């Protein structure tokens, strides 16, 4: 495999302003029921994006990104989870979860997660909202929430405390509870002490306690003045309430204060930060407190032994490279974690109960669904973020750069920015796709789908790209995903998260050249699924029916989609079969006809040809976990007249299906999950995508690249090793050593990122450890890149070249090398934004550049990395010129 190592496709990751879990920590009385609860983490960013993460017991899957828009920001998030209900037949309807946000405006927004867009907005006659919280529900004597009306209470920049109603699935302004006489007082933070008592941190050195039933001030606590030379007023950036009623506050002096919840007097003041305390989190039983500050510190506190009501600092760490602005905790379902975020854009998960026994984990700042595609035949790379699309051209193949480039050649000149497209409107781009020959581009936002025709010319020997808009008759609903078929005759997009739409692309020849026209789209039905109503009516509803994966077959005659629940639907283009097997339901649960466009534009393929549901679609099993990659193997029909679909799930299962037969392939049956390499099954990074090289699948995550040869069976794993691994896993789970963060790391694993393990030997059962670059070399590479604004492209030789050389030996009569590796992996590239294939002129003409003698076709890819040191972070603030300690 020949590699262009690139960093020129920038992805300006945005600061994290808010984090929130959909459920608070589960009390002991709900421990048994909690395993069936749909827990999600919401992350709000400064560019208006909202990310929905599924903890998955520590796997942390980014399921959804709702893009923001122009001048939008998410600065606060609140989940409202209603009480569970019991049906007459004894089934439980989980309490419905709703997500609300604020963005330093006068409005509160509710989000429709099923359709991945805003549901409603509400505002009143008041200033910008700076903080808000949800009223706790009524509980019985065991602490179990009961059905009861609840309100949102918000604090504003002009010192008002206002109330919003969320009853009957609505959001509306009710009234203003408090009007502060001083217009200079800002309500900065808020928390409920009881169902009717709310605690508000203000910008005037006070903490106010209000009764929301009558809007009266119960008590006002004063922090005094700042340190000598500091600000006149102290800003209370964060307040939290412990279960027994005590109040915890963090302020601009760097102090964490403990207040008695009955007398409202200060019990203790802890100077644990050198700068402002911006965020707080408390454990479910009130035995631990965590604070995050402007000094990058994350500090853990626990009660002092033998001194009731007194707390002490246990330790502090610097997990972040910038301010720790937002923080949320969750305990339950075998997890006990705190998630924090700030301007460095990367969420950090660190253990709560297991603090000091388990490592923290930094989640990727890059999206799970990569914002990157390529037009292999044209050697174009497409990237997008916000409302901007960029198209790059890689001029020369990587092999030519290695072999033919004279000494001193600047390989950065091998790339050229061809075009920048700004998509008009207030919504950011949700998805984009480009055809393999680089002549058709489709992009979508939350409100519309747009198509463009591209024409690459070389006037005066200088390449340039002409762009022309194509009229696309979409429904005006926008899309969450778009894709273009390999033959460039079909465009597919997903409306409202669940509706699969296809439209025919018709090329016509005119005096000015070839022009594209796109017909009116048709909605394809999805197979009816027997989902219990108690699941659809509660929790997150039909949120998990959102389509997250779309793939066309290499010959463009089959379309495959998969949703978060693990259901796979396939359609075939051709003469329709028995229509009884083709009925289904769309994303709204209503029957729809699965037919293609029957206009005259399809006359070249015959009027009887259309998209119809695969008759064997019902035989596809429901995946045990959400798919993170879905793709067809290269080439057309296999030897048995069927396609091959590769699906990889969040649980690291690698599954191969024959869709026409509706069954697993023979390889999948012979190679179950237990035979996968340990490095693949135990890595904490989820798979982001797959690139094919004949039978080889190059599988990549944020910091790992795997190759699995699907033409060979994986080596057998000794039974005692499997048994030992299972025992270790059982013991770890039983002892609770892994609470959803980084896990307990053994000493011998500390160098894993600098090693390769390659399967060798006649049957692939022997292992060879190959050393990577020294740590000093890695640091020097990172240091040089950190100061290079026009970062380096790199072509990879080294271990990949050695692997290529090893694979040209020991060929048998069939032409397949017996010595070729069954699998391979490296941690050399990180963090990976995406990997996209390219096709050189030699490959198109049948040449063997980069080819392998065992019959595997050549492969050239561009690996695009986006290191955190290249992110443009705001300058850090230090008061009084004090340096960081």
Automatic annotation (TrEMBL):
WD repeat boundaries on the chain:
270-302
* GO biological process assignments: maturation of SSU-rRNA from tricistronic rRNA transcript (SSU-rRNA, 5.8S rRNA, LSU-rRNA)
Q: Which InterPro entries is this protein grouped with?
A: UTP4, WD40/YVTN_repeat-like_dom_sf, WD40_repeat_dom_sf, WD40_rpt
One Pfam family of this chain: WD40
- Region: Disordered; residue ranges are 578-608, 728-821
One annotated GO molecular function is:
RNA binding
Q: Which domain of life is it from?
A: Eukaryota
Q: Which keywords does this Swiss-Prot/TrEMBL entry list?
A: WD repeat
Q: Which SMART domains match?
A: WD40
- Compositional bias per record (Acidic residues), positions renumbered to this chain: 766-775, 787-797
The UniProt entry's GO CC annotations, sorted and at most eight, read: 90S preribosome; small-subunit processome; t-UTP complex
Q: Under which name does UniProt file this protein?
A: WD40-repeat-containing domain protein
Q: Which organism is it from?
A: Lasiosphaeris hirsuta
Q: What is the lineage of its organism?
A: Eukaryota, Fungi, Dikarya, Ascomycota, Pezizomycotina
């Amino acid at each position: 495999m020949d590699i262009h190592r690139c960093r020129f496709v920038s992805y300006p990751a945005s600061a994290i302003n808010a984090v929130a879990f959909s459920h608070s920590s589960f009390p002991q009385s709900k421990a048994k029921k909690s395993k069936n609860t749909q827990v999600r983490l919401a992350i709000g960013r400064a560019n208006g994006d909202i990310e929905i993460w599924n903890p998955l017991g520590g796997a942390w899957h980014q399921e959804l990104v709702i893009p923001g828009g122009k001048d939008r920001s998410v600065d606060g998030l609140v989940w409202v989870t209603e009480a569970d209900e019991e049906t007459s037949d004894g089934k439980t309807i989980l309490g419905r979860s709703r997500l609300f946000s604020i963005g330093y405006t006068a409005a509160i927004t509710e989000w429709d997660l099923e359709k991945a867009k805003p549901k409603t907005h509400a505002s009143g006659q008041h200033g910008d909202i700076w903080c808000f919280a949800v009223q706790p529900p009524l509980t019985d004597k065991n602490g179990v929430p009961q059905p009861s009306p609840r309100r949102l209470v918000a604090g504003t920049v002009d010192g008002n405390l206002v109330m919003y109603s969320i009853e009957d699935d609505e959001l509306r302004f009710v009234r203003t509870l408090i009007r502060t006489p001083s217009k200079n007082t800002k309500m900065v933070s808020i928390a409920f002490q009881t169902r009717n008592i709310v605690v508000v941190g203000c910008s005037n050195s006070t903490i106010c306690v209000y009764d929301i039933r009558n809007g009266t001030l119960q008590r006002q606590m004063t922090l005094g003045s700042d340190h000598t030379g500091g600000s006149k007023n102290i800003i209370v950036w964060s307040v939290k309430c412990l279960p027994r009623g005590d109040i915890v506050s963090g302020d601009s002096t760097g102090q964490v204060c403990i207040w008695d919840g009955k007398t409202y007097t200060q019990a203790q003041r802890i100077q644990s930060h050198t700068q402002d305390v911006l965020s707080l989190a408390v454990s479910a039983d009130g035995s631990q407190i965590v604070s995050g500050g402007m000094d990058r510190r994350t500090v853990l506190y626990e009660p002092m032994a033998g001194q009731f009501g007194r707390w002490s600092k246990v330790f502090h760490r610097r997990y972040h490279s910038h301010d720790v602005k937002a923080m949320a905790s969750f305990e339950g379902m075998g997890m006990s974690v705190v998630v924090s975020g700030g301007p460095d854009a990367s969420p950090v998960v660190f253990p709560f109960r297991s603090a000091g026994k388990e490592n923290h984990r930094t989640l990727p700042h890059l999206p799970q669904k990569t914002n990157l595609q390529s037009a292999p035949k044209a050697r174009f790379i497409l990237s997008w973020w916000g409302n901007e699309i960029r198209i790059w051209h890689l001029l020369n193949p990587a092999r030519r750069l290695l072999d033919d480039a004279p000494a001193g050649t600047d390989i950065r000149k091998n790339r050229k920015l061809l075009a920048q497209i700004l998509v008009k409107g207030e919504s950011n781009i949700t998805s984009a796709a480009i055809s393999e020959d680089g002549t058709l581009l489709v992009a979508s936002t939350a409100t519309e789908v747009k198509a463009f025709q591209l024409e690459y010319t070389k006037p005066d020997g200088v390449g340039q790209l002409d762009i022309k808009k194509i009229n696309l008759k979409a429904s005006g609903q926008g899309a969450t995903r778009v894709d273009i078929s390999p033959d460039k005759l079909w465009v597919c997009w997903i409306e409202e998260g669940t509706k699969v739409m296809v439209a025919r692309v018709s090329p016509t020849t005119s005096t000015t050249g070839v022009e594209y026209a796109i017909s009116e789209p048709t909605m394809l039905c999805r197979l009816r699924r027997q989902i219990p109503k108690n699941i659809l009516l509660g929790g997150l509803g039909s949120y998990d029916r959102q389509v997250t994966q779309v793939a066309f077959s290499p010959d463009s005659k089959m379309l495959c989609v998969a949703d978060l629940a693990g259901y796979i639907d396939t359609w075939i283009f051709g003469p329709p079969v028995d229509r009884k097997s083709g009925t289904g339901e769309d994303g709204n649960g209503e029957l729809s006809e699965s037919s293609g466009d029957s206009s005259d534009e399809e006359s070249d393929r015959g009027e009887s040809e259309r998209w119809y549901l695969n008759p064997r679609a019902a035989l596809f099993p429901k995946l045990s976990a959400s798919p993170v990659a879905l793709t067809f193997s290269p080439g057309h029909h296999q030897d048995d007249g069927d396609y091959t679909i590769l699906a990889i799930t969040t649980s690291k299962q690698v599954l191969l299906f024959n869709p026409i037969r509706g069954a697993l392939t023979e390889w999948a049956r012979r190679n179950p999950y237990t035979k996968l390499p340990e490095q693949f099954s135990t890595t904490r990074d989820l798979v982001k995508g797959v690139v094919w090289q004949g039978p080889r699948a190059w599988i990549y995550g944020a910091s790992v690249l795997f190759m699995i040869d699907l033409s060979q069976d994986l080596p057998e794993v000794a039974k005692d090793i499997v048994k030992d691994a299972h025992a270790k896993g059982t013991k770890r789970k039983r002892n609770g050593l892994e609470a959803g963060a980084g896990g307990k790391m053994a000493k011998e694993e500390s160098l894993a990122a600098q090693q390769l393990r390659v399967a060798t030997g006649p049957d692939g059962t022997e292992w060879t450890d190959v050393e990577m670059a020294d740590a000093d070399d890695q640091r020097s590479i990172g240091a040089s890149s950190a100061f290079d604004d026009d970062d380096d492209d790199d072509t990879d030789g080294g271990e990949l070249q050695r692997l290529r050389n090893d694979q040209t030996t020991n060929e048998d009569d069939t032409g397949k090398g017996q010595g070729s590796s069954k699998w391979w992996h490296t941690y050399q590239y990180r963090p990976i934004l995406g990997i996209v294939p390219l096709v050189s002129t030699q490959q198109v003409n049948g040449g063997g550049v980069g080819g392998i003698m065992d019959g595997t076709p050549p492969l050239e890819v561009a690996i695009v990395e986006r290191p955190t040191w290249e992110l443009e972070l705001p300058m850090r603030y230090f008061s009084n010129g004090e340096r960081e300690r």
